[in-house]
Write a structure and sequence with these properties.
The structure holds two protein chains of two kinds. In chain A, about 40% of the residues are buried. In chain A, strands 1, 2, 3, 4, 5 and 6 form a six-stranded mixed beta sheet that branches. By secondary structure, chain A is α/β, with parallel strands linked by helices. Chain A contains four helices and six strands; from the N terminus they run ββαββαβαβα. By secondary structure, chain B is mainly α. Chain B is about 60% helix and about 5% strand. In chain B, helix 1 (about 5-10) packs across helix 7, helix 2 (about 25-40) packs across helix 5 (about 95-105) and helix 7 packs parallel to helix 11 (about 190-215). The chains are: A alpha/beta, B mainly alpha. The interface of A and B includes residues 53, 62, 87, 90 and 96 of A.
Chain lengths: ~110, ~220
């Protein structure tokens, strides 16, 4: 899985690309957890390039979100594609973490 | 570490009498089938979405309670959804229950007692010897429900199974269970396998209701 990272003010914007399933979940989780451990206090995951998420992907997001919240950090997700949005709605995941329609609105809240 | 099937059995068993609620055997089998799939997912052996369930690693877990079902799914030539596999595994509900109870006895958490009802019918009961694991699960779940903490995937599964089996009134008390119902529903919904178990059980209740409605007087 290709994962881009860019710092926008105090927020680290992480943009994974492709499918967030069990194959990709572990490396994605490790990369984000490493950033949390390095002290990134504000993390935004941009989902605009993710076209599929499975149960394993949701579990990974849960672990990351919990880890960041336990570190008193900020965490949000933005720019869901239709297929991912469908899974978020079906699982109620959007009631557990902050989800924004686009990067700009997310960054306005996080910064 | 206990499997989900063991954890849910500990929550269902009456600690002193060691009795399982036998009026809800079919429901219990669905819960245990769900627990098996949730454990396989937790061990990165299977993955699922809203439409299908696939094996991602067919190597055995070494847990007798799980491996026959991992092999069953791995050997399938076709891909099916979660509900299909629950319907297959539920047929082995009694075996799963016996295996999970056996594992709890081996771990020194339960003991087995043979009793006679009306001096004739033999029944087996499983009183608790060591209730520390069960207490820890109850405390953890109660703390989670009373906070806005993000749950661990493990706790999502337990809340989902306990909610589907309607265990929260006995775990929390009826008033607390009612007060915390929205939070319970929010967490339970997060697990897609749990959702499939819940949907199948709802269908079972509907079928049962229809059966009784059309019984001749």
């Amino acid at each position: 899985m290709n994962i881009d990272e860019i710092k926008k003010d105090k927020t680290l914007v992480i943009t994974p690309e492709g499918r967030l399933d069990q194959v990709a979940a572990q490396s994605f989780q490790q990369k984000v957890i490493n950033s949390i451990e390095k002290g990134e206090s504000s993390i935004l995951i941009d989902f605009s390039k993710i076209n599929y998420i499975s149960s394993a992907g949701l579990r990974t997001l849960l672990i990351i979100a919990k880890r960041q919240k336990d570190s008193d950090g900020l965490f949000a997700i933005c720019s869901l594609t239709d297929s991912v949005n469908q899974v978020f709605k079906a699982s109620g995941f959007d009631t557990i973490v902050d989800v924004y329609p686009d990067q700009k609105s997310a960054l306005d809240k996080l910064i | 570490m206990l499997t989900f099937a063991e954890e849910i059995l500990l929550l269902i068993l009456d600690d002193k009498s060691g009795k399982l609620d036998m009026t809800s055997l079919k429901e219990l089998h669905f819960i245990l089938a769900g627990a098996v799939l949730m454990d396989l997912a937790d061990r990165d052996k299977i993955d699922n979405d809203l439409d299908k369930l696939i094996v991602t690693d067919s190597t055995a877990t070494g847990v007798k309670l799980l491996d026959p079902y991992l092999a069953m799914i791995a050997q399938s030539e076709e891909t099916f959804n979660t509900r299909y596999w629950l319907n297959q595994i539920v047929e082995y509900g009694d075996e799963i229950k016996k295996e999970a109870l056996g594992m709890l006895i081996e771990k020194g958490i339960l003991k087995v007692e043979e009793k006679k009802i009306l001096w004739v019918f033999g029944v087996r009961r499983y009183p608790t010897i060591d209730d520390s694991q069960e207490k820890e699960v109850r405390h953890r779940i109660t703390d989670l429900l009373n906070s806005d903490d993000i749950p661990t995937p493990h706790d999502v599964v337990l809340v989902s199974l306990a909610n589907t089996f309607k265990l929260f009134p006995s775990i929390l008390g009826s008033d607390e269970a009612e007060r915390l119902a929205p939070r319970i529903a929010q967490i339970a919904k997060l697990d897609l396998i749990g959702q499939a178990v819940s949907q199948l059980l709802n269908r079972l209740y509907e079928d049962r209701l229809n059966f009784y409605m059309y019984l001749p007087y």
